Amino acid sequence: MHVPDGFIDAPVSLATGALAAAAVATALRGARRELDDRAAPLAGLVAAFVFAVQMLNFPVAAGTSGHLLGGALAAILVGPYTAVLCISVVLLMQGILFADGGLTALGVNITDMGVVTTLVAYGTFRALLVLLPRRRPSVTAASFVAALVSVPAAACAFTLLYALGGTTDVSLGKVFTAMVGVHVLIGVGEAAITALTVGAVLAVRPDLVHGARGLVRPLELRTSPGSPPAPEPVPARTPAPVRRSARRVWAAGLVTALVCAGGVSYYASTSPDGLEKVAHDKGLDSRTEEHAAKGSPLADYQVKDVSDARISGGLAGVIGVGATLAAGTGVFLVVRRRRAHAPAPAAEAPAAGSL
């Protein structure tokens, strides 16, 4: 759903650019609370993983494909504020390096794919967790529904932006129907990818899933009826909690991202994605402008001067994963450092047990 240059006029593009900048500034402040010892090492990886999986277009219907947007996945894994930053980094790398998504439309894309999807998905996710049993399957199920809802919500947001600043005279009713219809189908793929990824992390390290925090149940000492009360515990020095390294999860995630971008992406669907298909069928693309980064050596996810398409695309994917990981990690290290220098918040009571 990367909006190219020329779809939205200058005033609305500028307005969404200002909105996106405000959202990123707010996210930078909010991410300080989310990027603790568990989330900080994974935030850059989540951005790189989203970049990689976005290269895997999957067929949906009638010559149309879809790809992960990633707002729901990032919000559930590392928190909503950090998720906005993750998706913003991905979109910036795609626009500058790969000529994917217009540079003048960067504000539109961050607002639509970064802010709207994250807010809708995380709000839906938290609401469902209130209603569902406090168990691991509930987190996975809520992830599925939240991701499913977030994609047509982004399609609705695009239609609204097009109604305000579209550059062609097209029936908005037809645009809305086509966009929502195809993105409901794409949402099913988004939901499946999100639920599978969240479920995989939950299975090995539930403490690393931001959306699962607060669902841990404390251990209870059970005694048989009529047994004497447990003796008063002798005060003792509480041992420091053992910190479990996230290196294995980080390494597995990085390998998966590299395999997806460097190898599996070659087999991705070549059909136009939902927005491209609707734009072509309804005439939204009649005023599309050339991308400012069309001369990039990585434009269109191909390495310039490498003739073999498989090798060229694979190298571009690997470079993209590396660049996104480096940029994302750099941003989150700065945010994490500012958190370390900020006044310490009131200590929270540690929760025992596991999901």
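Next protein, fold it too.
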Amino acid sequence: MLGVVSVTLLMELLGALSESPVWLLGLLVFLPGAASALCSARQTLFVSAWTTIVVAVTVLVRQGDGRSWLDRLLMMLLTLALGMTAVYACNRRIRRESEMLRLRSTAAAMQRHILRPLPLLTDDVLVDGVYEPVQEDRLIGGDIYDVVVSPWGTRVLIGDVQGKGLPAVGAAFAVIGAFREAAHREPTLTALVDALDASVVRHNSYAVQTGDDERFVTALIVNIDAQNEVQAINCGHIAPQLLHDDTVITPELKSGVPLGLAELAAEPTTVDWFTFPPGSTLMLTTDGLTETRDADGTFYPVTERLTRRDSFSARNLPQALYDDARAFAGENSQHDDVAILSVRRSPYR
């Protein structure tokens, strides 16, 4: 209210000094327009009505400016029309903001059901992570992860769908849904991977029917139980890194074909084993992290940074690693989705 009165007095003062109604145009355009962009509908209505009254009184009182009654009438009608337009624009803006808020709330709820909130504690490990889609207005991208507590241990999935956009999100949904169902049903990791591959094949058959492109999905599936050794199958994905004491070890895993391309594989899927001792951490990432570059085109040195991880926050290593990668890239924008998981085994057994 104080701001409206102040602007009105300023406009009237300028109009009196210049003896011209041109300053009124600034009043009738600025105040309702600003209110429609910043204020509530009721406030905008008040500002528009106030502006209309001030302009009407001004043009009626100033009889000696040589302007005809038609000019003064047009001025008042224009002010009234602009005020009504401002109220309409304000109501439209508020409706759109409410719709966007509802959509984002719905998307956030979907993300909580599709991508499990982290951290997640199981009988075997503590899983924490960070997930950042390349498009900030989209809460879910082409990178995927999931954690399932099965009768055979904790099963962890991380993957990356080929391509971007809504078709990639559809393939991501297919893999996550299949993983949650098959992880409880299949006793072996090879049977679980076969189920995931079949889900991608089915998704691709539907995509062809609707004119979309076929997709493949790189994935890494790890099964962790009470034993020191864990099982893993790498389907064309980035190898994990094991952090133990002051060392960073990359377990040697056979890199098979991505999900959806099993028919092209020369050999059947096999399980690899590696040691995962108590107190150690297994880092799982997507190429959104490993392919981060600085201004000179140098790739982010993940292994080197993890080796010198003393400067990182021990409580949230994935977020610290992600922030370090963003600082390394500098002004270079993020070009791909990023998913980073830390799987920490308790030091007490």
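About the second fold: Residues 69-114 form the longest helix (46 residues).
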